[in-house]
């Protein structure tokens, strides 16, 4: 393609001008690898935006989508229905923590987040606690690109062009502490007390009776793969319980096996009130997201004395048949190949690979949890970040990783084998050595 062919597409979250000068186009993918337009193979060490947990172009998913598109291409879920959406909700609920067994489908993670926040607001109102309108997020959190998700999100670059966003939002401090916890293997030992800010600053400032929900990613992904300190999530849960605040885990990245369990909530042993998911539900093959909701919350809506719509919210494509088919294909693949268990099985090898970067030039942190990791570089104010340069050099050397601020994120498909990890860390080391 020449530059004129690229003109019309305004690409999301991309420096468009730079991309169009130096495009990186993929034309195919299989299992662990992309194929580029010029015939190169590139190892996908980022599960393509944290999505393809089972690797690319998996046959079961492709077959399920092809079959469904010939049988029932589309049916609305507005006062009509099709069996697959109900069956999928049951299947997803069976994977989730026991008390979260009601599922609202959306078409993306951003929509899942906005849906969860609206459920929280409406839930309190239904219970006669309509003053609870304040939403709490966390610095460096990412909760999608819609207005509510951007508001509770804590990425300055994502917020600064959009004015005031939602009123009545506050943010907890992020959990990164390089001075005390750099090069932690797994969860940092220090930092559980950071959760106390919720009770010591946020609740006194806004009043518990005005706070609807706290939303956090159990592991902050886009913010740089920030692993929660030991005990931190438990403490958030306890504080929310004491003050009647709903706890939402945004598991758009951590859902579907990334930490070796269906959801991170099970890995950490902390059960939130709502879980948002997307990405891995269909292995990225068809857009889909959703919210898992505690039965008691759902029941509150169902007890409404009015016979009309209980929750005035939804998307035309909620529960889309092709997305449901892709989700079944993905869940079957995960199960048949025991892929969730692989995060456990490969975690130690991956951890050693991540920490093999310690001591390389400009590396100020390496961190990991199960099959999520990041390598962080010393910042270079006023210039393109070292992480961006490393990720570009990796691509040239046949490896896809993504820059997340000053870090590169690592999120290999769960089918990755030792040879793929060796290629990944060898290539990253080469790239790091070539960056000043
Ligand atoms: C934690 C989290 N929430 C929400 C989203 C938004 O998902 P989507 O891009 O599907 O809207 C993302 C995307 O990366 C995410 O990482």
Could you characterize what this model shows?
The structure is a single chain. The chain is α/β, with parallel strands linked by helices. It folds into two domains: about 5-50 and about 340-435, Alpha-Beta Complex (Aspartate Aminotransferase, domain 1); about 60-335, Type I PLP-dependent aspartate aminotransferase-like (Major domain) (Aspartate Aminotransferase, domain 2, 3-Layer(aba) Sandwich). About 35% of the residues lie in helices and about 15% in strands. The protein has 16 helices and 15 strands. It has helices at about 15-20, 45-50, 60-70, 85-95, 110-125, 145-150, 155-160, 180, 195-205, 230-245, 265-270, 295-300, 320-335, 340-355, 385-395, 420-435, and strands at about 25-30, 35, 40-45, 100-105, 135-140, 170, 210-215, 245-250, 275, 290-295, 365-370, 370-375, 400, 400-405, 405-410. The strands form three sheets. Strands 4-10-9-8-7-5-6 form a seven-stranded mixed beta sheet, with helices on both faces. Strands 1-2-3-13 form a four-stranded mixed beta sheet. A four-stranded antiparallel beta sheet has the order 11-12-15-14, with helices on one face. Strand 11 and strand 12 form a beta hairpin. The longest helix is centred in the first third of the chain and has 18 residues, at about 110-125. The chain is globular, with a radius of gyration of 21 Å. The chain starts with 15 loop residues before the first helix and ends with a helix. About 50% of the residues are buried. The mean pLDDT is about 95. The protein binds pyridoxal-5'-phosphate.
